[in-house]
Each structure stands twice: as C-alpha cells, then as structure tokens.
C-alpha cells in the first residue's frame, strides 16, 4: 500500500467536491480529489438535466393535446418512446461529457479512484491500495436514493430515478412512491408521454410546500391531471410476470393491489456518510450520522474537516452544493483562519405544471420563529389576466413580510412561470427589500408578474391593518 501526503483531501467529485477542489487549489494548497464512482455529477448524469429533457418532451406532447382549446387542431398525436429516450440519453451524455472534460483537465496526480475511509482525523485509506495523510479534508460524498429493503427484494423492476434515464423505451405503466419534487416531476412527465402513472403519497405533502393554502391548491392542481393518491402508502410489492403487483393502503385502511411495469421509489435520498469511518474522526454527529457543522463556514466542529453538498443533508440542490463546496474548499485552504462564506437566500423549484417555487423563509419556518410577527398576502392565478390568456390559470402565490419593518421574508407558490417569479422574489428577499420598495418596481402589462403585484398589494394592506396580536399561522396558537 502506497502513502501519499497532501494538504487538502476532497472526498467526492460531484458538484460540491469539484468546486471544493478548485477553491482549495486556488487557495494555494496541494489538493487530492478522491472519487469511488464514475465522474459526472448527479445533476448531469441522473438528476436535474436528464429530468428536464424528459419534461421538455412531455411539454411538447402536452402542447399538442392542449392545442384544441385554442382552436388549433394538429391531428393524431404519436409519441415515439424510443425516440424520446434516445434524445434524453444523448443530450444527457453530452452534459456529462462537459463535466468529465473538466475533471480530465485536472492534473492526473491530483486524482485518486476508490472508496475513502477515515482511519483517524488525519488519515484516509483508499480501498486497499493507498493511504492518504492530509492536514484538512472536505467531505462531499453526495447522497443515494432510498429504497426500502422489502421493496428491493421484489427485483429489478423496483427502481430509482437514476435508472429512468437509462431506459431505451417508455414503459406501459409505473407506480411512483413519493409526492416530492422527483416523484411529481417524473410522474407527470411520464403520464404526459402516454405512460399509465399512479403516484402514492404517505401524507398530504406536495414537493417542498408547507403553506396550507398553497398546499390545498397544489393538491387539486396535481389531482386534476394525475392519478395522485394522498394519504396512501405502498405496503407490499411482489414480482408478477413481467412487472410488479403493488399493494397500497389508504387512510381508511382499505387495500388495493394493482399491476405496474415498474415501481419508482422517490421517497427521499440518504446522505453518503455511513461508510466513511467517521467514528474514527472524533467528530460529534447527529442522529443520521452527519457531522455537526457550521452552516456559514461548513466546518465540522472545530476540526480541520469540512462538509458540503448533499452529504450534509441541508439543501440538496446543485446551486447549494456549489456554494457549500466553494466555502468548504476556501476554508480548508485557509484553516485555521476560517471565515463565513456567502449563503444565498433559499430557492427551490419543482418543474411540474403548474410549477412550484419556494424561497426565503417558508411558512412552516415562520410559524416556528416569527409567530405573530409576520403578515401574509396572496393571489390566485385562476383569474389573473396573462395566465388566462395562456390557459395556465391554476395556482396560488402567498408572500410573507415582517410586521415591524415591512421587510419581505419569503414566499410559496404554485403557478405559471414560477421558476422566473421565484428568482425575482428571492433576489428581493436577499436584497432585504421592503414590500413598499418592491411595489415601487416596474410591472409591465400583460404579464404573469402582475399577479406578484396583486399579492404584494394584499400583503401591504395586511401590514397596514394588522390587529395588535395578529398571528398569521393557523396552527401555532395554544389549543383549548
């Protein structure tokens, strides 16, 4: 076994790891980048980019199906599943190629392949071939989709989102377990491409939403198009012929068994921290085994170990992974003189239709930390002018602001163009704008953003007319 010595060792070559490596080397430190799997980020290979390729195909199919409502008739619609998946794989491979090219540009002596495991706070063992002694470390090992053992036992037709993007053809049917972002995005896209889809949700959640009024609108919007069964759990999966028998149980205890080609497990992801030998580092860890860390510096305790990306389970999104990786790499280079880095306003988008966006402080967070101190404004998109013009008039936006200052705090929405509205509002939030300052901004006509102005006007009214002990939360006051 050979021994290598370095100043910084980065474990994981995904978005967070690559960014950390570049930051540490820019900081003048000798850095090793360790990867146990293939190069190419989760986003490029099996995440945000291939999923958007599938969604783009679904949007094209849906546009043809929706055209008659405008008086436009395109004739018979034919979906070529092989051609759909061929484009998804081809473009996916192109995006992955860009990432691999970047890694290939790193010096060969900086890259180590194999599984890393801590032997001590200053030592890593890579498989059975290399011992690395380092002064500082960045953990950027990503996450893995969760599949319960009892489901996995039913065979290869129980899949995760990773497998979807390697299909050669679209299946006849699929059951989706989970009403989070991944489950709803893929479930709706596949349904629009002619696949029989049923989505099962253990509770009533929809993507990342927590505002009860927005959630109610979102559930109805999803159920208008999809076979979504809320408060229904998958209780048994068995291989049957060329597919699976999936048994579900609803809130009343009623069970139902149906046959599907596949079961997609979209119930969450687990941080890849359990086989790293963290018990040998002396780090304090939480109930999930994740080291406790400072969210501004990404430093684990007072150690020379930093963590970034999906491995810390804070905000599992590519922009966050990049920001965290940069902070972790910068601080690994300058340790022990660590500094707080730029953490941007939270922004999460689900590319369903209607789209879903949350930004800034969520309703749930405000009810916990701002109870009685924030106001809510809202708008429905049902009668919003541009939305009706486009026949995309579904959804609701709720916006939040602080009573004392009028400062904009965040928003939750489902509706048309949410990916763009989410950006505008997150910029306002990060800039610390007040509601009155936001209403001074230009609004063109006719645009969907006029709905934002309506919601802000309502919010301004609520701020100006709030009762002395007003509480926006529906569930944060003491019970009888």
UniProtKB/TrEMBL annotation:
Bridged cysteine pairs (disulfide): 43-48
Active site: 445 (proton acceptor)
Positions annotated to bind NAD(+): 178-185, 268
Cofactor names: FAD
EC numbers: 1.8.1.4
Amino acids binding FAD: 52, 141-143, 310
Residue ranges annotated for the Pyridine nucleotide-disulphide oxidoreductase dimerisation domain, each copy included: 349-455
Cofactor info, note text: Binds 1 FAD per subunit.
Protein name: Dihydrolipoyl dehydrogenase
């Amino acid at each position: 076994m050979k021994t290598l010595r370095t100043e910084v060792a980065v474990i994981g070559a995904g978005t967070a790891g690559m960014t950390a490596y570049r930051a540490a080397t820019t900081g003048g430190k000798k850095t090793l980048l360790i990867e146990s799997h293939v190069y190419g980020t989760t986003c490029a290979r099996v995440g945000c980019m291939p999923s958007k390729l599938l969604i783009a195909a679904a949007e094209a199919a849906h546009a043809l199906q929706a055209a008659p409502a405008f008086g436009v008739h395109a004739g018979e619609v034919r979906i070529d599943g092989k051609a759909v998946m061929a484009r998804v794989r081809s473009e996916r491979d192109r995006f992955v190629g860009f990432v691999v090219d970047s890694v290939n540009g790193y010096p060969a002596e900086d890259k180590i392949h194999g599984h890393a495991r801590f032997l001590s706070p200053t030592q890593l063992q890579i498989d059975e071939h290399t011992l690395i002694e380092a002064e500082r470390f960045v953990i950027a090992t990503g996450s893995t989709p969760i599949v319960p053992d009892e489901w996995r036992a039913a065979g290869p037709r129980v899949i995760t989102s990773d497998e979807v993007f390697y299909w050669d053809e679209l299946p006849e049917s699929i059951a989706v377990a989970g009403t989070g972002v991944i489950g709803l995005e893929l479930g709706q896209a596949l349904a629009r491409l002619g696949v029989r889809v049923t989505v099962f949700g253990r509770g009533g959640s929809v993507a990342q939403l927590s505002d009860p009024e927005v959630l109610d609108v979102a559930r109805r919007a999803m159920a208008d198009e999809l076979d979504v069964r809320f408060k229904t759990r998958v209780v048994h999966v068995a291989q049957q012929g060329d597919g699976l028998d999936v048994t579900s149980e609803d809130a009343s205890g009623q069970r139902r068994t149906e046959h599907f080609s596949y079961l997609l497990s979209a119930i969450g992801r687990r941080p890849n921290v359990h086989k790293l030998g963290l018990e040998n580092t002396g780090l304090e860890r939480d109930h999930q085994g994740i080291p406790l860390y400072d969210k501004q510096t990404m430093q684990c305790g007072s150690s020379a170990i930093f963590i970034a990306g999906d491995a810390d389970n804070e905000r599992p999104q590519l922009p966050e992974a990049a920001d965290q990786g940069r902070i972790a790499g910068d601080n690994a280079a300058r340790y022990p003189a660590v500094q707080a880095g730029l953490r941007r306003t939270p922004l999460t988008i689900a590319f369903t239709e209607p789209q879903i966006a949350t930004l800034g402080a969520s309703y749930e967070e405000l009810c916990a930390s701002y109870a009685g101190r924030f106001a809510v404004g809202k708008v429905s998109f049902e009668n919003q002018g541009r939305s009706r013009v486009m026949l995309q008039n579904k959804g609701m936006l709720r916006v939040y602001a602080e009573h004392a200052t009028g400062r904009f705090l965040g928003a939750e929405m489902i509706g048309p163009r949410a990916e763009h509205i989410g950006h505008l509002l997150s910029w306002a939030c990060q800039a610390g704008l007040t509601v009155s300052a936001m209403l001074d901004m230009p609004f063109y006509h006719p645009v969907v953003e006029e709905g934002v102005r309506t919601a802000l006007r309502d919010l301004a009214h609520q701020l100006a007319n709030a009762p002395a002990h007003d509480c926006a939360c529906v569930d944060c006051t003491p019970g009888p």
